[in-house]
Design a protein that fits this description.
S-adenosyl-L-methionine, transferase, single chain, Class I SAM-dependent methyltransferase, 24% strand
Length: 197
């Protein structure tokens, strides 16, 4: 990520959590995300890498559930907020400054690689998926939360499935239409893609 892009995310760090689905401050929104993720993850204390973790809302949520959580993000400002959040929730989350496209971890380290609204923004999604999959232990799960936004940005579920199935046999999609997840009604395509081996 370039310095300009990093600067944009750093500038948004202080207010990023104002969106209900970013900060998970509303107990109902937080509970909706916990209910969504719990059935698709292996039992705690599985090792989870949250790629592009931003302000650490999902990382903190999973750490509270007993997972061994690592987060990587290219924005120092976002990571500062994430560290404060983990401390407020009294959980341990290993937060690392690094490139979401090439996280600075050795291969076969994680039981789950999870990302939320990141893959669509990276310049070579196929190469990125190859790198993320390499970080999984045998039998590990890839959990992608993505969308095709009303602005025209994003990646469709069909395109995401095609990318994943070019690398792994299984790719199941669940549409995320429940407004409890977002704190408001949504009309664009939002989904969770789960790939287990």
């Amino acid at each position: 990520m370039g310095e300009d892009t990093r600067g944009i995310w750093d500038a948004h760090a202080a207010t990023f959590d104002d969106e209900a689905d970013h900060g998970l401050r509303d107990p109902a929104v937080r509970a909706a995300w916990a209910a969504l993720l719990s059935p698709v993850l292996p039992p705690a204390p599985a090792a989870v890498l949250d790629v592009g973790c931003g302000t650490g809302s999902i990382a903190t949520l999973l750490a509270e559930a007993g997972y061994g959580v690592h987060g990587v993000d290219s924005s120092p400002g976002m990571l500062d907020v994430a560290r404060d959040k983990a401390a407020r929730h009294a959980v341990a989350v290993d937060l690392v400054l690094g490139d979401a496209a090439d996280p600075p971890f050795e291969a076969a380290r994680f039981d789950v690689v999870l990302t939320r609204h990141v893959l669509w923004a990276l310049p070579d999604p196929g190469a990125v998926l190859d790198r993320w999959i390499a970080l999984l232990r045998p039998g590990g799960s890839l959990v992608l939360i993505e969308g095709r936004w009303s602005t025209g940005a994003g990646i469709t579920a069909a395109d995401c499935v095609s990318l994943v199935r070019g690398r792994r046999e299984q790719a199941d999609v669940r549409l995320l239409t429940d407004e409890a997840l977002w704190g408001k009604p949504v009309t664009d395509e939002r989904y969770l893609l789960l790939s287990r081996v």
